[in-house]
Amino acid sequence: MKLPKAVKRALKLLEEAGYEAVVVGGAVRDYLLGKTPNDYDISTNARPEEVKEVFKNFHTLDIGIKHGTVTVFIDRRQLEITTYRSERDYEDFRHPKEVVFETDLDADLGRRDFTVNAICYNRRIIDKVGGIADLQAKLIRAIGDPSVRFREDPLRILRALRFAAVLNFRIESGTRDAIFKEKELLRKVSSERINLEFSKLLLGETAPEIIEEYAAVLRVFLPELPEELALNLKALPKLDGLASRLASLLVGAEPGVAEGTLKRLKYPKNKISQVLFLLANKDREIKPELSEIGKFLKDFESADLLCLLGFQKAFLEAEGRSHNLDEVLKLAKQIDPGKCYRLKDLAVSGRDLLAMGYPEGAGIRILLDKLLDLVIEGRLKNEKEELLGYLEKNNPPAGKCMIVNDLRPNK
Ligand code: ATP
Ligand code: MG
Fold it and tell me: Which pLDDT value is given to residue 97?
C-alpha cells in the first residue's frame, strides 16, 4: 500500500518511540478497492498524552482527545491518531458513555462496525476479522453479533445502508435481518448523526436500490418518504448533488411537508431552500427562448435554473414523457453571467425615477420591472441615458398621480 509521506512519517515516529501503530478503517478499505482514500486514520497503543509527546514538534489539536484522538499536522496534512479503545454502556444511544483505552489492536477492532472497516495496514495488511474476504464478496457484515452491535449504536444500521450504497455492496444476510429487526432503534439517534450518514447514502452509486430495499428502515426517521417510490428512484440516479437528490425523494410526499422534514433532519437553510425551489418549480414550463429564460433569472440564479432544468428532465424522462429541455439547457448555458437580469443590475434605480418627477409608491417598482423586461428581451440597452430617455418618451411623469403605460413598442 502506497502511503502518503506524512502517514509513513507518523507511523515511523510512533514506532521509534516504542509504540505500535497501524492505518485502519476507510483508508485501507478504499485503497484495496482501488480508490484514493480521503483521509488516513491511525490507531496506536500510545495514550493520547504519549501521542502528544511523540509529536511535540508538530502542531496538534486536542478536540477529540476525550475519545482518544489527537489531530496532528504533518507536511500540511491533517492526521487523526487514536488510541486503541473499546466502548461500553451505550446507554443514551448517542455518545459512548465510557471510552476505555486498550493496549492491543484486537480490542480496538472489536468495537468497529463492519469487517471491511477493520482492515489494518503497517508494512503489510493485517486482517483479523475477515475483512478482505468480505471486500472481495462485496459484503457489508457487522463485526460480532449484528443485533448486539446495532443496540450498542443504532446509527450503525444506517451506516450499513450508506456503505452498501456508496460501495455498491450487498448487506450480508444476518446483518440484513438484524437491520430490519432493530430498525426502530434509529429513533433514538440524533438528527445530526442521521443527517451525515443519510446524505452520504443518498449520494451513493446504488442509492436507489438500497432505498427501495430498505424503505421500511428509512421510514423510521423519514416517515414522509412517499409510499410509491418507483418514479422517484428512477429519477434519482440522473441527479447530481444533495439538494436534487433530496428533492427527488420528496416528490409526491404530502405537499408542504418537505420543509418540516428537512428542518427536522437539520439540513442547513440554503440546502432547504434549494430543495423547496426544485419542488415548487418542478412542473413550471420554461420555453426555449432566451427572453423567457432571462425573465426566470430575474428571481433566481443561473445555477438554480440549470439545476431545475436537470431536475425537470430527470422526472420527465422517468415518466417516459418527451420534452424540449435540452434546447432550454443549451440556451441557459449561453446566458451571459455579466448581463442584466435583476432589478439591482439595472442601470437605473428608483431614485433616478423619483428625480425625474415620478411620485413615490408602488408604481416606481412597476416601471423598473417593465424596463427590466425590455432589457432582458434585448429591446433596450442597459444604459441609464437610454432607459430614462425611453421612459420620458413613453411614460412621462404626470404630476402627483402615477400612470403606467404599456411600455412595450408595437403593441
Ligand atoms: P469515509 O470514507 O466515509 O470517511 P470511513 O470508513 O473512514 O469512511 P468514518 O465514519 O470516517 O468512516 O469512520 C472511520 C472508522 O471508524 C470506520 O472505518 C470504522 O472502523 C470506525 N467507525 C466509525 N463510526 C463507527 C460506529 N458508529 N461504530 C463503530 N465503528 C465506527
Ligand atoms: Mg473517514
Answer: 63
Contacts of 216 (CB under 8 A, 6+ apart): 180, 183
Asked if 31 and 125 touch (Cβ cutoff 8 Å), the reply is no
The verdict on 253 and 280 lying in the same domain is yes
- The ligand that comes nearest to the alpha carbon of residue 167 is 1
Tell me how many domains the chain contains. 4
Closest residue by Cα to atom 16, ligand 1, is 25
Long-range contacts, stretch 381-386, CB < 8 angstroms, 24+ apart = 382/339, 382/340, 382/345, 382/346, 382/347, 383/347, 384/347, 384/348, 384/352
Mean pLDDT of the chain: 93
296 and 237 belong to one structural domain = yes
Residues 1 and 78 both lie in one domain:
yes
Residue span of the structural domain in which 377 resides: 343-394
Task: Report whether 160 contacts 171 (CB < 8 A).
Answer: yes
Pocket test for ligand 1, best of 117, 166, 195, 198 (most atoms within 8 A of CB): 117
Place of cell 482492515: 119
Closest atom of ligand 1 to CA, residue 27:
7
> Within a domain: residue 186?
yes
Q: What is the CATH number of the domain that holds 180?
A: 1.10.110.30
Give the Å distance between the CA of 25 and the centre of ligand 1.
6
**Does residue 401 fall inside a structural domain?**
no
Q: Which residue, among 214, 131, 130, has the nearest Cα to 178 in the 3D structure? A: 214
Strand, coil or helix: 279: helix
pLDDT at 411: 44
Pair 34, 94 in one domain: yes
pLDDT in tens, 73-114: 999 999 999 999 987 655 555 555 678 999 999 999 999 999
Cα(85) to ligand 2 centroid in Å equals: 17
Same domain flag for 233 and 333: yes
- For ligand 1, residues with CB inside 6 Å are 25-26, 38, 41, 112-113, 117-118, 153, 155-156
Q: Which atom of ligand 1 is nearest to the CA of 25?
A: 18
Residues 32 and 160 in one domain: no
Pick the last residue of a domain from 223, 257, 277: 223
pLDDT of 20 reads: 97
What average pLDDT does range 282-299 have in this prediction?
Answer: 88
Higher pLDDT, 210 or 342: 210
- Among 80, 112, 149, 162, say which to mutate for ligand 1: greatest number of ligand atoms within 8 Å of CB: 112
Domain of 365, CATH number, reads 1.10.246
